[in-house]
Amino acid sequence: MYELINVSKSYGKNQIFTNLNFTIESKKFTGIFGESGSGKTTLVSILGMLDQKYTGNYIFNGINITQLGDRELSTLRKEKIGFLFQESYLINEITVFDNLLLNVLDKENKQLIKRIRELMDKFAISDFLYRRVSTLSGGEKQRVALVRALLMNPELIIADEPTGNLDKTNSEIILSYLKSLCLENKTVIVVSHDEKVLKYCDIQYNLIKNGKLERCL
Question: In this structure, what are the phi and psi dihedrals at residue 70, rounded to the nearest 5 degrees?
Fold first, then answer.
């Protein structure tokens, strides 16, 4: 379980959240919807431990991360959270394999390479491993980005507008894969304004512009 307790966040005089209390249930697909400017990106940054400049507490599966130092926080984020964004943020000029190993110190790590191959098989893109990213479609790139998000076997996956650049078919593919992760005891948060996400949600919230979350499902 992941909890925000009395979290307040502002940018100068612009108050985004005031005493926000919010719980994400483990092993569920939670959808968070809201219009532009409602605070979705800020919420993602807090839940993903990318932003610590707020008041209140964030309890990450029993750990109060507001009590951790920068090094502990960085390690926890790297090991426990996988991110998927609207943009794939892959380097077009190099291969998929090189992209996946880009931030890995031990590029000969056999266990990691085995996991890459297993994930590539799982998402039906094993044939693309040694192709340059520039030759892939948008949907294929997003599946590679999902492989990257899962490399460290995180317990929490945060997807911020993951279907924003995809057509209907590829959107459904990505959302189906994300949904399947809940059957592997992972927790998935999708922040979006895409109505196609709705049918995959176990739990649904709407984020409204006064910084409040309303549970709809």
Answer: -60, -40
Geometric angle at alpha carbon 16, from 13 and 22, rounded to 5°: 150
In the chain, which ranges are continuous DSSP H helix? 40-47, 70-80, 96-100, 110-122, 138-150, 168-181
At 67, list the tokens. 């009590």
In the block, residue with structure tokens 């307040």: 8
Q: Which residues pair with 57 in a beta bridge?
A: 5
Integer distance in angstroms from the first to the last C-alpha of the chain? 18
How far apart are alpha carbons 29 and 6 in whole angstroms? 23
Q: Which two tokens stand for residue 212?
A: 């409040």
Question: pLDDT, tens digit, for every residue of 150-188?
Answer: 999 999 999 999 999 999 999 999 999 999 999 999 999
Enter the pTM of the model: 0.94
CA distance 13 to 10: 7
Structural domains for the chain: 2-215 (3.40.50.300)
